[in-house]
C-alpha cells in the first residue's frame, strides 16, 4: 500500500495540503440549477473537490412498506420508508455528466459514490478521476471488486466498520486492482454527536493500515474537521447546502456556504499552525531575539578589575555574550574600562 494517492494531478497524503471535499448529496432538492449553484459555491468556498452520489431508488432498495423498510434508528429520517427517502435524495443521472463539465470548467474535481455495477459503468464513461465508497457499502465485496477493477483511486468511509471489516475491504480493493486507497473515519449517525466521533480512531487507522486517512463528517458545525486537521487528516469531507432552511434529507448536518468557507479557512489556518518540525528562531520571531537575556556590565568597571556578580549580570536585552558563559566570566579580568550598560563581549575579557 502507498502512503499517498493522486487524484487529478493532486497528491493526497501526509505532508500534503488537506484535500477538502464538498458533498452535495441530496441538497440539490431535485433542481439542476441548485446543483450547479452548489458546485459554484463549493469552488468559491475553497473546496478541492465536489462529490455526488450515483444510484436510483430501485438499485439501492425495493419499494416495500413493511416494518423492515421503515426507518426508526433515531435519525433525522425516522418515520420514512427507505424507498421514499432515496427517491427524494437521488441525483438524476442525466445531470451528472453536465455537472462534471461545469466542475471541469471551474478546475474543480468531481467524482461520485456508486452504489451498484451500473453506476460504476456510468461513472467510468464520465471519466471520473476517483471513486468514493460509502460506509454502508464497505461490506459489499462485489461492489468493491467492481470499483477496484477500474484501477482508479478509491476513498473508503468506515462508519460502523470493525477492524476486521476494514482490513477485508482493503484486501479486496487491493487484490482487485485498486492500488491507491484512503480511509475516512466516519460516524454513521445523522447528525453525529461530538461524543460519538472518536477521532483518535482516524490516527490509529493510518498507523495500522498505512494509507492516507481523513474524516467524513456528519456532525453539526466545523469543530470536528478542524480537530481532524490538527490530528493529521489528509482528507476532509463535509456536506454543503445553499440554505438549511430549504430542508431536504441532509440539510441538518450540512454547512451553508459562509460556514463551509469558515471551515476551509480554519483548516488552512490549522495547517499553517502545525507547520513543520523546526527548532530555533523562525522568521517571525528572529527579530525578537534581542529580548533574550545576555551578559551586561551593570556597574562601571576599570581596566584590570575583576568581573563579579556585582558588576556583571544576565539581563535583557540580548546583545551581549550568552548567559551560559557567566560562570567562565566571573573571576576574569577586564581588558579595558567598561561603562555600565555595555553588552559584555570577549574583547572585554583578558
Give structural notes.
The protein is an alpha/beta fold. It folds into 2 domains: 5-55 and 90-274, Aldolase class I (TIM Barrel, Alpha-Beta Barrel), CATH 3.20.20; 283-348, Antifreeze-like/N-acetylneuraminic acid synthase C-terminal domain (Type Iii Antifreeze Protein Isoform Hplc 12), CATH 3.90.1210.10. The protein is built from 12 helices and 13 strands. It has helices at 32-44, 57-60, 82-89, 96-105, 117-126, 141-148, 163-175, 200-209, 223-230, 257-274, 283-286, 326-329; strands spanning 5-7, 10-12, 19-23, 49-54, 109-114, 131-133, 154-157, 181-186, 213-217, 235-239, 294-297, 312-315, 342-343. The strands form 3 sheets. An 8-stranded parallel beta sheet has the order 5-4-3-10-9-8-7-6. A 3-stranded antiparallel beta sheet has the order 12-11-13, with no helix packed on it. Helix 9 links the parallel strand 9 (213-217) and strand 10. The protein is elongated.
Helix fraction by DSSP (H/I, runs of at least 4): 25-40%
Return the CATH topology of the largest domain. TIM Barrel
Strand content: 15-25%
Radius of gyration: 30 Å
Q: Helical stretch count?
A: 12
CATH superfamily of the largest domain: Aldolase class I
* End-to-end gap: 64 Å
- Number of structurally distinct domains: 2
CATH architecture of the largest domain: Alpha-Beta Barrel
CATH class membership of the largest domain: Alpha Beta
Largest beta sheet, briefly?
8 strands, parallel
Number of strands: 13
Low-confidence residue ranges: none
Helix/strand class: alpha/beta
From the spread of the alpha carbons, the general shape counts as elongated
How are strands sequenced across the largest beta sheet? Answer: 5-4-3-10-9-8-7-6
H and E string: EEEHEHHHEHEHEHEHEHEHHEEHE
Q: Mean pLDDT, rounded to whole units?
A: 95
Amino acid at each position: 500500500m502507498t502512503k499517498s494517492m493522486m487524484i487529478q494531478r493532486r497528491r493526497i497524503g501526509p505532508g500534503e495540503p488537506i484535500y477538502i471535499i464538498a458533498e452535495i448529496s441530496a441538497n440539490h432538492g431535485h433542481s439542476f440549477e441548485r446543483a450547479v449553484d452548489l458546485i459554484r459555491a463549493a469552488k468559491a468556498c475553497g473546496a478541492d473537490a465536489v462529490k455526488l452520489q450515483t444510484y436510483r431508488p430501485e438499485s439501492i432498495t425495493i419499494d416495500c412498506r413493511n416494518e423492515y423498510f421503515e426507518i426508526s434508528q433515531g435519525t433525522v429520517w425516522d418515520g420514512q420508508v427507505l424507498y421514499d427517502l432515496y427517491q427524494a435524495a437521488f441525483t438524476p443521472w442525466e445531470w451528472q455528466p453536465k455537472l462534471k463539465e461545469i466542475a471541469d470548467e471551474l478546475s474543480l474535481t468531481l467524482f461520485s459514490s456508486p452504489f451498484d455495477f451500473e453506476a460504476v459503468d456510468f461513472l467510468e464513461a464520465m471519466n471520473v478521476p476517483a471513486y468514493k465508497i460509502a460506509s454502508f457499502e464497505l461490506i459489499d465485496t462485489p461492489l468493491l471488486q467492481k470499483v477496484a477493477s477500474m484501477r482508479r483511486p478509491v476513498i473508503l468511509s468506515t462508519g460502523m466498520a470493525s477492524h476486521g471489516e476494514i482490513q477485508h475491504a482493503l484486501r479486496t480493493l487491493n487484490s482487485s486492482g485498486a492500488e491507491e486507497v484512503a480511509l475516512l473515519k466516519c460516524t454513521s449517525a445523522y447528525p453525529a454527536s461530538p461524543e460519538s466521533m472518536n477521532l483518535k480512531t482516524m490516527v490509529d487507522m493510518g498507523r495500522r493500515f498505512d494509507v492516507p486517512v481523513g474524516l467524513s463528517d456528519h456532525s453539526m458545525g466545523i469543530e470536528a474537521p478542524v480537530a481532524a486537521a490538527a490530528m493529521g487528516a489528509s482528507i476532509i469531507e463535509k456536506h454543503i447546502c445553499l440554505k438549511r432552511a430549504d430542508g431536504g434529507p441532509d440539510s441538518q448536518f450540512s454547512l451553508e456556504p459562509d460556514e463551509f468557507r469558515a471551515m476551509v479557512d480554519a483548516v488552512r489556518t490549522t495547517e499553517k499552525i502545525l507547520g513543520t518540525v523546526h527548532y530555533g528562531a523562525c522568521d517571525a520571531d528572529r527579530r525578537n531575539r534581542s529580548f533574550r537575556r545576555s551578559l551586561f556590565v551593570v556597574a562601571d568597571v576599570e581596566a584590570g578589575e575583576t568581573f563579579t556578580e556585582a558588576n556583571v549580570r544576565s539581563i535583557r536585552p540580548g546583545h551581549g555574550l550568552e548567559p551560559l558563559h557567566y560562570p567562565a566570566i566571573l573571576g576574569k579580568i577586564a581588558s579595558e574600562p567598561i561603562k555600565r550598560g555595555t553588552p559584555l563581549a570577549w574583547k572585554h575579557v583578558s
